[in-house]
Amino acid sequence: xxxxxxxLQQIFNGLVLGSIYALVAxxxxxxxxxxxxxxxxxxxxxxxxxxxxxxxxxxxxxSGVPGPLVFVLGLTAAVPxxxxxxxxxxxxxxxxxxxxxxxxxLITAIGVSIVLQALAMMLWGKQYKSVPQLIPAxxxxxxxxxxxxxxxxxIAVSCVLMAGLLxxxxxxxxxxxxxxxxxxxxxxxxxxxxxxxxxxITFIIGSALAAVAGxxxxxxxxxxxxxxxxxLGLKAFTAAVLGGIGNLTGAMLGGVLLGLIxxxxxxxxxxxxxxxxxxxYKDVFAFLVLILVLVLRPSGLLGERVGGRA
Length: 310
Fold this sequence. Notes:
single chain; 310 residues; mainly alpha; ABC transporter involved in vitamin B12 uptake, BtuC; two-stranded antiparallel ribbon; 11 helices
């Protein structure tokens, strides 16, 4: 494979990975935009979505249900399960601490993450689980690179969901209520907005996107396990910071950029370095980006620089 073909291949891989990062990053940025809270348990919601879908899919496959229908039914089970989980996390873990010092919800988020990992390990075990391929992965050749129909499906689903979310936020009464709450919860409440309802719906929508991301990433890599959401969640958080946390468009841009940076770093740059910076070091690039953004532009690419209050 030539250098250009390798570059093109990593661009395709980066777009697939970036689409998934963007879906997860939206959950982080929506919650932060409204509550100024980093929900570090969000990665575990992704994990629950993948494992619930896998559990349902295996039951259906054993009953002779065809693959594409199994995928739809597995996703149909995973999304409501994660929406309920997101609602319970907000209602039980975060709402009582809404007026507490910021460190308290942050520690609680880490604790919820650990609890969810432990529960998943007890329910599904700690072994890596093989995920049956339910969407055909027919290879399509573009120049000297290859992209599969499964990867195109992942990109298409992610784009549709992200476009739908933008329409919801910018064109609907619920979206106006969410934007008003993010701007000033007190004033929004005085104007008749049910703040608790808006915050709960924000967690529910973010969790639904996380469920879809969990199902897609498990299909892409063919594995699922109780710890899969931790690193994915950290990278999605990095994507949200890169784009400007609290900014929906920034989260999408940050996810795609981070996916491209990681893939190019692992493949193209790794090849130029003789394999020293290969796939085993791909996580280095993601967190190097996080460090550089926090040092050089803490507000992110599309974030607004806000001065301190007098």
